[in-house]
Design brief:
single chain; alpha/beta; two-stranded antiparallel ribbon; 4 helices; 29% strand
């Protein structure tokens, strides 16, 4: 089984969680790698169409984990645009997680995961589980540990 962690991260907060997840999956004996989404312009206000200097292909993966920050109470525009351009997710196991600055429940994490789920379904897939990491939450380390444990258990 080949696992692809497809991550967009401007500040490296989201990437750091993806890296911890990859390490745990590899330690479990699984073939996991991180692929970064890199836009030519990663300004939060950039409007589509977004041009990518690195746009990972999901085709080689049996399991795909999408990871993105929340921007302006929504999924980062870069990830939205990338997902729109993804090939079919038919037959793939899909997970997602988002990171956000604020700990409050009403700051876009749930909405961002719903946005990922919606596009994944349009591409023939289904998100099995999704997670939110609130960067300023006192329980952030627990959120990250739970995300890692749940995904490692599921794959």
């Amino acid at each position: 089984m080949k696992i692809g962690i497809i991550v967009f991260s401007k500040t490296n907060n989201t990437f750091s969680v993806a890296d911890e997840l990859k390490s745990a999956l590899v330690k479990k004996g699984l073939d996991a790698e991180i692929q970064r989404i890199v836009p030519e312009n990663d300004d939060p206000g950039v409007k589509p169409p977004i041009v990518f200097s690195s746009k990972p292909d999901v085709t080689p993966y049996d399991v795909v984990i999408f990871a993105s920050p929340v921007w302006a109470f929504s999924l980062a525009g870069v990830m939205k645009e990338y997902l729109e351009q993804v090939s079919s997710l038919e037959g793939k196991r899909v997970f997602s997680f988002v990171t956000k600055q604020l700990a409050s429940k009403f700051t876009g994490g749930t909405k961002a995961n719903r946005q990922i789920k919606s596009v994944v379904e349009l591409k023939g897939g289904r998100v099995e589980k999704s997670f939110i990491v609130s960067w300023k939450n006192k329980k952030r380390d627990e959120e990250i540990a739970n995300l890692i444990a749940e995904i490692c258990k599921a794959v």
